[in-house]
Amino acid sequence: xxxxxxxxxxxxxxxxxxxxxxxxxxxxxxxxxxxxxxxxxxxxxxxxxxxxxxxxxxxxxxxxxxxxxxxxxxxxxxxxxxxxxxxxxxxxxxxxxxxxxxxxxxxxxxxxxxxxxxxxxxxxxxxxxxxxxxxxxxxxxxxxxxxxxxxxxxxxxxxxxxxxxxxxxxxxxxxxxxxxxxxxxxxxxxxxxxxxxxxxxxxxxxxxxxxxxxxxxxxxxxxxxxxxxxxxxxxxxxxxxxxxxxxxxxxxxxxxxxxxxxxxxxxxxxxxxxxxxxxxxxxxxxxxxxxxxxxxxxxxxxxxxxxxxxxxxxxxxxxxxxxxxxxxxxxxxxxxxxxxxxxxxxxxxxxxxxxxxxxxxxxxxxxxxxxxxxxxxxxxxxxxxxxxxxxxxxxxxxxxxxxxxxxxxxxxxxxxxxxxxxxxxxxxxxxxxxxxxxxxxxxxxxxxxxxxxxxxxxxxxxxxxxxxxxxxxxxxxxxxxxxxxxxxxxxxxxxxxxxxxxxxxxxxxxxxxxxxxxxxxxxxxxxxxxxxxxxxxxxxxxxxxxxxxxxxxxxxxxxxxxxxxxxxxxxxxxxxxxxxxxxxxxxxxxxxxxxxxxxxxxxxxxxxxxxxxxxxxxxxxxxxxxxxxxxxxxxxxxxxxxxxxxxxxxxxxxxxxxxxxxxxxxxxxxxxxxxxxxxxxxxxxxxxxxxxxxxxxxxxxxxxxxxxxxxxxxxxxxxxxxxxxxxxxxxxxxxxxxxxxxxxxxxxxxxxxxxxxxxxxxxxxxxxxxxxxxxxxxxxxxxxxxxxxxxxxxxxxxxxxxxxx
Amino acid sequence: xxxxxxxxxxxxxxxxxxxxxxxxxxxxxxxxxxxxxxxxxxxxxxxxxxxxxxxxxxxxxxxxxxxxxxxxxxxxxxxxxxxxxxxxxxxxxxxxxxxxxxxxxxxxxxxxxxxxxxxxxxxxxxxxxxxxxxxxxxxxxxxxxxxxxxxxxxxxxxxxxxxxxxxxxxxxxxxxxxxxxxxxxxxxxxxxxxxxxxxxxxxxxxxxxxxxxxxxxxxxxxxxxxxxxxxxxxxxxxxxxxxxxxxxxxxxxxxxxxxxxxxxxxxxxxxxxxxxxxxxxxxxxxxxxxxxxxxxxxxxxxxxxxxxxxxxxxxxxxxxxxxxxxxxxxxxxxxxxx
Lengths: 805, 338
Fold this sequence. Notes:
By secondary structure, chain A is α+β, with helices and mostly antiparallel strands. Chain A contains 21 helices and 32 strands. In chain A, the strands form nine sheets. Chain A has a seven-stranded mixed beta sheet, with helices on both faces. A five-stranded mixed beta sheet of chain A has the order 7-15-14-13-8. Chain B has a five-stranded antiparallel beta sheet, with helices on one face. In chain B, strand 10 and strand 11 form a beta hairpin. Classes of the chains: A alpha+beta, B alpha+beta. Chains A and B meet through helix 3, strand 29, helix 19, helix 20 and helix 21 of A and helix 8 and helix 12 of B.
């Protein structure tokens, strides 16, 4: 029998009924009396100076109540305090098509929409920059004046161990370029915010956000309203995946419009606007040089990345470091050098998407390991097992490793898929591929420097035995409310369904830094456990007295506190609560969590990478390729994931499968791409998000390494499992058709190109991918010329020039 | 979400009334070549194409004449020939046992249009009249404002697909149309003055702005397919996702067997030009053969020569051009006797 009564059981999520029956109240479901509807005017130019904004016609339009522009909120803001380069609405300059410029509040949505076309913005066009290469070269064009070199946002160089010696002692060196195309989160709920500024001069903002606490700070800064007068309530997010973890223009605009009108204001983005709000996966060019001994032992790795950051910082400084930081935690690397550059371009800002910054290098590195295994004649699975970074060790870049279950993940995959027997044996057009990966269970540092807890929780037990857990976490569908309820229920001996959860409310709940970097289970879980254990000891003290049983013999489970040697000796949870309140006074306890010191190095840049525990995972993909149409079908993805301990196995499996699905979409089709600054496919029809019907068979295998510091041994499960799926599919495609895809996504066009079956052009290739920083295909200026074209060419065609007959 | 523009709905009870309403509201004078925003009165059946287009302000009609309440507008009858009322939903068409049995290509095509929800609303008449598509055009008003518009809505602007093109290059995208073409379908129209019949194969023209001979003042009432024995047919579609998507290349093929030889054959394509095309050269390559590999290759070559994909849908020109050949081969091979 399990030592737990809640942990490890497949109990239904506490909020699933509300989500399934439509009772969950998302931000756009809120309707307040006298509420106004807001819409944002967005920039139609990719890079331009704003000469003048004239809102007079719009302001005079019947039904329009208020209008705000960038000049009303000029304070710089942004998620990372060290790189704040954004304003709530554009001031003086626009930097991408779709950037918010003005906000209108009107009596209804139609009126607000109509009013947008009455706002006149006079733009002076500047040269736009759309590619990494151009951004690095163009000194004459500055997207941000602050860039010291061309349009570089951030450049980092870190070196560990004896790199030259490592490469000198290698028997074999691989040097490969990769490109990971940008893509976006595409949550099904579009962003929405409702602001209400009341007669008490206090502002309440209900918003679909992953980071209510950080947003709280930015609202204070931009609105000039003390934080004590602002309350942020994170509504249930209908999916977020990192796309709702920045402060956004519509949130500030709704707030200021409400302050101006003293009426509630709602702004809900339409689908296209979500593609502009973005903050998704960075397009990244990579060069990876790896030295190995004959047996595959790695002697040195030099990893370089160039990130296309889009128009603003977002989390970019962290993203840049993350592309280099976590490559070292899976396999032994004795010498490591990392160079990273993130540039500005005139496109919607990139930021964190599930796997934040680690997905792209992991794809490149795991593809390269597959090549190394092939070069050396090694089985790719056995090879990885032989070079694992050991548990309870430190990496070359000074990251502390604790529990480490990658080996068990690989074993589980071999049992489930018979990878080693089947690889190379499936015949042309069929393939099987493998990759491993790791991720953090929460960033080791907060985004603004402070010594306070990363997560706080408060629990109250009322006289009827009711338990309320308050924690600042944001429920984004990942199951954090259920996690809070489960951890509290396990500690107190009740069930998750008995617990009331108050989350994401800056007035009612202690601060949690937010639902990003897969930190919530580990950090908020520990905070809630801390609070619950304090209350449990109060209950045990009272129960011990009543039952005449020593406290260390008591167990709390199934609504009872009982003697473990004689379970019939018990009192009910409710009775224990009454006794404890009589004995100790009101039953409230607070708990908190802060990662331990010493989990990372002390060099500049050491802040990104450390975590209290790494999750590990590996995936096997099985694919079929239609050799005539180039269509790639992924038949099955099996993922094994070390989550420390599955607090709720059904929810962990859901996260593993959801991650596999998302990774699958990224490698087969999804692209956030542009033509002359215009998003090519800003709709769910054209952005080829796979549907449930398109999704391959998914199998999730839970591996439990029981982390010593995680709550009941748990680590993250929400992001890491995405990472190995992408290289596993690329490696499977190689197994199927003998072509390396060193570039995502793997489209039918690229498969046909590799097979020498592009229509009329037939030279087979063994590899598709970049050879350097330059664009691999085509002419990046072509679309711009199409947009600039006048009708002259057409008219010449229509009227043959004189004398031509 | 995107909001619909304001409009008025009129609900006639017969096709004749619908035609009269179009006439009364001046539909005859409307000219698509002046750009679609100028269309002041339009018909709506299932609305699955029109309403998204209206939300994007590609059309902003003041009046919609709804066909929802027209009596006997839906249904399939067999009386010597197959008569499909224009309001028959794609779901009904795909599920009709007579269509599945004898007019297989049509059932297969209807079954792969968009999603189940949209097939439940979308009609065969609507699919026949589907507007041409282009990824420089099927975008929101905001996007097209940033673009500077294109020829299809603003004829004074260039075609973004090929800026010196004298015509709009938007692509034909209706799945059921090539299937109906290879089955020899005829379409029937009414206007305020009378009725006309057109062979579907002659209904379309190579012009993305004005892709058919449909006049703004007439109503498509039904489609008829002759009943002839010995035909087998199929529809093969390439799209990005197996769940739902417009075709990026598609082929319908029908073969009439006379013993072991092909007595007659028809091959039609869509999503590979501004109009769906019935390809005579493919027919010539197949008649009298037994669908040997060489015959199929010759027909596929004819299709390949005809296909003119442009860079205006998902996928690439080269992928779609190649697919025209591969899909033809696959379609024809599947029509060989079991």
